[in-house]
Amino acid sequence: MGSLPAPASAECAPRPQGRATVAASDLAPLFSAQRRHLDHFFDRLDMAQAAAFAQALLDAPGAVFFTGVGKSGIVARKTAQTLASLGLARAGFLAPVDALHGDIGALFPGDVLVLLSKSGASDELLALAPCARAKGAYLVSLTSAASGDDCPLAAACDLNVHLPLQGEVCPFGLAPVTSTAIQMVFGDTVIAAIMEARRLSRDQYASNHPAGKIGKTLIFKVKDVMKKQNELPLCKEGDMIMDQLTELTSKGCGCLLVVDEEHHLIGTFTDGDLRRTLKASGPAIFSLTVGEMCNRNPRTITAEAMAVEAMEKMEAPPSPVQFLPVVNENNVVCGIITLHGLVSAGL
């Protein structure tokens, strides 16, 4: 398997003596060659064929399956997963050999089967194509061989998209290190066009990415990660600073939310404010109230705001803060969101 380490055996292929190195001067011409090959693809891609392929995916009445062998199969699987992640169509990968041994049962009339092959002559795909056609599927081939005798797969399909390939960036011109890049770029670009055509919204996209940073950024609201009720470090304007030290330190917020009798926010008092007051006032701090020293113009946020917006607001100039009071439209405190809480939630 390509992902397994080579066994330490005398039977392994001999390696050149000395340590192999790759210098910037070695890489530069390879990247330049890769750029030329990609430019060749972009300059010669038939946009009418590309549009026909995109339309076939948009109009598919059933599922869309992708298939391929070897590295093209890996690209096919990735492209299927990207399309499936949008929630715009049922999409999946169909392994060609498994399909010929029963998995073709997943295909129904009206489904689309996209077959990726650099050569357009992969035996496994040529064996699969007539079987898929017999099931009533619409067949699309993506090949780097032009249609004709050199590309039998194109003749077996309803639509062929030619992906122009000038060459592979490989010392032997054989390893699929450019053709797979072209396949990936083509598939992802067509999917981006489908997203625009279907007017996919951020909320729709987020609904299919509930985990990980993408989902949390698009789904989590302040109300989902804020502290509330008994977790809030509340105090009154007339409370003595020294009487509120326990409240200041025990709730893990690093601050006090100063409120009136109806929980309207008056201001905030932080552990930093405590240190500055102690340094400036000395023993006089024992006679000072929270209301005398609190910040009466703190940054706030609403419970319905996105959690990522809260993080951006915390980090905004002129100086970052570690928390935001959460208030409603009447400036009544309903929670507090902290930077630690956002980080703990994976944001």
UniProtKB/TrEMBL annotation:
PROSITE patterns per the UniProt record, alphabetical: CBS, SIS
Record keywords: CBS domain, Repeat
Segments forming domain SIS: 53-200
Signal sequence interval, chain numbering: none
Site feature Catalytically relevant, where: 71, 124, 168, 209
Domain CBS: 226-285, 294-347
Entry's Gene Ontology BP terms: carbohydrate derivative metabolic process; carbohydrate metabolic process
One matching Pfam family: CBS
GO molecular function: carbohydrate derivative binding; isomerase activity
InterPro entries: CBS_dom, CBS_dom_sf, KdsD/KpsF-type, SIS_dom, SIS_dom_sf, SIS_Kpsf
Superkingdom, taxonomy of origin: Eukaryota
Record-linked PANTHER family: ARABINOSE 5-PHOSPHATE ISOMERASE-RELATED, PTHR47476
Stated family: Belongs to the SIS family. GutQ/KpsF subfamily.
Name listed for the protein in its UniProt record: Arabinose 5-phosphate isomerase
Native source organism of the sequence: Zea mays
